[in-house]
Write a structure and sequence with these properties.
The chain is of the alpha/beta class. Helix content is 43%, strand content 16%. The chain has 15 helices and 15 strands. The strands form 3 sheets. Strands 3-2-1-6-7-8-9 form a 7-stranded parallel beta sheet, with helices on both faces. Helix 2 (36-50) crosses helix 15 (403-434). The two termini are 41 Å apart.
Length: 442
């Protein structure tokens, strides 16, 4: 498949020297962390390199990092609200000099705090493209001030009334959301192009006042990696076929894994042998494990923890139904990954996930609060005849979400961003000759 891709890219985007672009892929999260952004960055980098482009990933240092060709690490520290997250620190003068010597032709940023990429684009006078993976309003509880004010407003404290607590929490949420949207708008309007995985998110950005060009490019999945036949990992967990529910998620508030656990008792009434297998880890794991104890279903929920990207495909291949509860996704790549392996999906219909599930074809989308229908859809897809039909549909439908298609669309976004950058540079030059200033920040 990559050979076909190289043929289609016979006339690549080139720099002024006629060489294929050197792309600086700036991300605030990378291996050994495992999450959707890391998967997206790794996949896009893999596809672009196969097309003949040079890509250097610029990422935070991590204590467990391993040497990797084409990865440039910058110093970072812990970010307390997210224990597994590393926060980039301003690079030293020597690091900036090394970055300059890499001679990027374009910078592509990823992540919630992409300011380092913006700084590099401005310092080196390069086009800047940003992929909008994260709606900041869904992650306000990770803002550094949020947990302190939330704790202060706890109505269990001796000094706090219920009314005052409610008012403070409401204002905290409103102002935090506003701060996130202002940052997103400020940053986006300093880019030469934006990429977002769904039209829903693109529309939200435009409503917020974003003036930059926004291209909708769904994150692709590495079909060849996921579909390599692998041994059944469920046998080690003593879970028979026909009883395997799977979800892949970071265990954090915004992912709503608690909703899946909450709906398990209803499923167990009809199908007492069902097991919910959870791949992933995060700050809420202890609370979720406690939830299973309180519901008396601890033997029906299996917390596997993080699994290497190379091994996730085995779980997709041998599970029966993929269930997903998050309503904060900009796309929901795991649903597309599941479908690519012939695994039907049941998900809550809100946010970007609606573009990653072919409703009533490769799975079902259910209203977020309709627990009864969610349970019914899962049970329906466990029926052998229905499962077989949906599994076949899922494999066919997922072909449209390959890395190859994603890479070609991203290159079109790069081309437009470079054209916009050149136009702005020409305008600035003319204004400079005329002695006319321009608005700050543009």
């Amino acid at each position: 498949m990559f050979d076909q891709l190289q043929t289609r890219a016979a006339h690549p985007l080139c720099n002024a020297k006629g060489e294929p672009l050197h792309i600086g892929m700036f991300t605030d999260t990378y291996l050994p962390q495992i999450n959707g952004i890391v998967t997206s960055v790794s996949g896009l980098t893999h596809a672009l390199r196969h097309m003949g482009y040079r890509v250097t990933i610029v990422a935070p240092q991590h204590p467990q990092q391993v040497p990797e060709e084409g990865v440039f690490r910058v110093r970072a520290t812990l970010y307390p609200p997210i224990p597994e997250q590393r926060m980039v620190l301003p690079p030293s003068i020597r690091k900036w000099a090394r970055l300059r010597r890499l001679r990027f032709d374009l910078i592509h940023t990823h992540g919630a705090f992409p300011v380092l990429g913006l700084m590099a684009a401005r310092m080196f006078a390069l086009p800047l493209v940003h992929t909008y993976h994260t709606r900041m309003r869904d992650y306000i509880h990770y803002y550094p001030w949020y947990p302190y004010i939330e704790a202060f407003a706890d109505d269990a404290k001796w000094y706090m009334t219920t009314k005052a607590s409610s008012r403070i929490r409401s204002q905290l949420n409103e102002r935090s959301i506003s701060a996130g949207e202002r940052f997103d708008t400020w940053f986006s309007n300093r880019c030469n192009g934006l990429i977002t995985p769904t039209q829903i998110i693109a529309d939200e950005l435009l409503e917020m006042g974003v003036r930059a060009n926004v291209d909708v490019v769904a994150n692709g999945v590495d079909l060849s990696r996921l579909r390599v036949p692998r041994a059944d990992p469920f046998t080690n967990l003593n879970i028979p076929q026909g009883s395997r529910l799977l979800t892949v998620s970071r265990l954090a508030r915004e992912k709503s894994v608690d909703v899946l656990i909450e709906r398990m008792p209803a499923l167990l009434k009809t199908h007492p042998d069902l097991k919910l297998v959870i791949l992933g880890d995060g700050p809420d794991r202890a609370e979720l494990e406690q939830q299973t104890l309180e519901l008396g279903i601890e033997s029906s929920v299996v917390f596997v923890g993080y699994v290497a990207n190379t091994e996730v495909g085995a779980y997709y291949q041998h599970a029966d139904v993929f269930v997903f509860a998050s309503v904060t996704e900009t796309q929901g790549m795991v649903a597309l990954e599941a479908a690519s392996c012939g695994l039907p999906v049941v998900a809550r219909a809100e946010g970007g996930i609606v573009n990653s599930v072919a409703d009533a074809v490769a799975g079902y989308l259910v209203a977020p609060d309709d627990a009864e229908l969610f349970v019914a859809r899962v049970l329906e897809l466990l029926e052998p005849i229905q499962h077989t039909q949906f599994a076949q549909n899922a494999v066919t439908w997922a072909e449209s979400g390959s890395l190859e298609i994603m890479a070609l669309k991203v290159l079109q976004s790069y081309k437009k961003a470079m054209q916009h950058f050149e136009k702005r540079q020409t305008e600035r030059s003319i204004l400079g000759v005329l002695g006319v200033g321009e608005k700050a920040g543009e």
